[in-house]
């Protein structure tokens, strides 16, 4: 059970975080456990994590802030294994380096997020520097996981409850994707129909032109033949 001082400190930090949010990060304590915080990190532009939304957890000890929290990622990201603690200087892997003056906001800024200003996700060099909890993956694999991240997150009931705005974003992206598919299908159908109609009309026009020229030649031949017969009749009459 959390100490009274721990609960008060975390409540105070949540209020401070609500007033001054960390850019591209959303964090909320669990409604049933103040020691468990859930966060979502947005991937930065120009990185393999662009477009991704990475869901993770902070697990605070009962005597926080005198001891650091544990940090884990839930969303598959290609940089860290899911549901396993991540090793970093501000986590419970290194309690000797922890400073009780550090806040949750600072912790989130230093969390191994998929953003350009941190080296933990291997963004700057696009590498896979090994550390406890890390995994290896290609840039392409990270990009694919980024595209799939929201769809993966909304499967979690806790995520849906804590971050309804991101669920709405996911639904909006699905709607836009559906409209794009329907629009592309309609354009393809229109293009397929247009050449067929034009070709049919062209062929019909060509056939009519051929028939007209053929009819004209027959008329000319008939006229020419009639004139020859009249000349022959005139010769016999003389």
From TrEMBL:
Segments for region (Disordered): 184-238
InterPro entries in UniProt: Ub_conjugating_enzyme, UBC, UBQ-conjugating_enzyme/RWD
Domain UBC core: 5-172
Pfam families associated with the record: UQ_con (PF00179)
Biased composition regions of type Polar residues, renumbered to the chain: 197-211
CDD domains documented for this protein: UBCc_UBE2J
Protein name (Swiss-Prot/TrEMBL): UBC core domain-containing protein
């Amino acid at each position: 059970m959390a100490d009274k001082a721990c609960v008060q400190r975390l409540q105070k930090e949540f209020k401070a975080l609500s007033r001054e949010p960390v850019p591209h990060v959303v964090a909320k304590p669990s409604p049933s456990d103040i020691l468990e915080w859930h966060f979502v990190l947005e991937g930065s532009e120009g990185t393999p994590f662009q477009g991704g939304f990475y869901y993770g957890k902070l697990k605070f000890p009962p005597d926080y802030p005198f001891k650091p929290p544990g940090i884990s990622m839930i969303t598959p990201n290609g940089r860290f294994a899911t549901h396993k603690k991540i090793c970093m200087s501000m986590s419970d892997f290194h309690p000797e380096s922890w400073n009780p003056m550090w806040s949750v906001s600072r912790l989130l800024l230093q969390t191994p997020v998929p953003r350009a200003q941190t080296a933990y996700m291997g963004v700057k060099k696009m590498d896979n520097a090994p550390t406890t909890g890390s995994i290896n993956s290609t840039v392409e694999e990270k990009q694919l996981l980024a595209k799939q991240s929201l769809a993966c997150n909304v499967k979690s009931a806790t995520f849906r409850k804590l971050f309804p705005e991101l669920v709405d974003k996911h639904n909006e992206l699905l709607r836009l994707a559906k409209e794009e598919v329907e629009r592309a299908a309609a354009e393809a159908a229109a293009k397929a129909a247009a050449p067929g109609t034009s070709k049919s009309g062209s062929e019909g026009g060509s056939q009519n032109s051929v028939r007209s020229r053929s009819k004209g030649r027959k008329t000319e031949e008939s006229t020419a033949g009639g004139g020859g017969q009249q000349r022959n009749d005139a010769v016999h009459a003389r």
